[in-house]
Amino acid sequence: MSTHATGGYETRTWDERTLDGEKWDWNAWGQNPTLVLTRASVTNTFQGGIEGEGTAEYLMTYRPDGACTYIGYERIDGRVGGRSGSFVIQHAGTFEGAGSQPIGPSCLAPARAI
């Protein structure tokens, strides 16, 4: 049995750094683009069909052409369809340009609801 939920989310924090630990600066990188690998720690608040808080970790590869490929996992603590607990979502995809919408799959990772 599967459950389908729709709703929205708000990104509350986004801390992205290079693997050297330096704060990631999209605008400075855009002036001299090179291949860069970053890690982002993110928190989200969900509302609608999913109510709760999410904590995510992403690995992101920025290419010199401006595109970015990413993969990450997000643990969501909250409620879906009247059931409370935690679950994990896997994110993966590619986006191009600042403010672009990511494309690609997001799926429930193999995990057990708490």
Q: What's this entry about, in short?
A:
This protein is mainly beta.
Helix-strand layout with pairing:
Blueprint: E1 7-18, H1 26-31, E2 36-48, E3 50-62, E4 67-80, E5 83-96, E6 106-108
Antiparallel strand pairs: 1-2, 2-3, 3-4, 4-5, 5-6
Q: How would you sum up this structure, described in words?
A:
The chain is mainly β. It has one domain (16-108). It has one helix and six strands, in the order E-H-E-E-E-E-E. A hairpin with a 2-residue loop joins strand 4 (67-80) and strand 5. The two termini are 18 Å apart. The relative contact order is 0.18.
Largest sheet, in brief, is: 6 strands, antiparallel
Number of domains: 1
Number of helices: 1
Q: Provide the residue-averaged pLDDT.
A: 85
Query: Which sequence of SSEs, written as H and E, runs from N to C?
Result: EHEEEEE
- Class from secondary-structure proportions: mainly beta
**How would the global form be characterised?**
elongated
- Cα-to-Cα separation, first versus last residue: 18 Å
Helix content: under 10%
Q: Which ranges are low-confidence, i.e. pLDDT below 50, for 5 or more consecutive residues?
A: none
What's the gyration radius in Å? Answer: 16 Å
Q: How many β-strand runs? A: 6
Beta-strand fraction estimate:
over 45%
Strand order of the largest sheet: 1-2-3-4-5-6
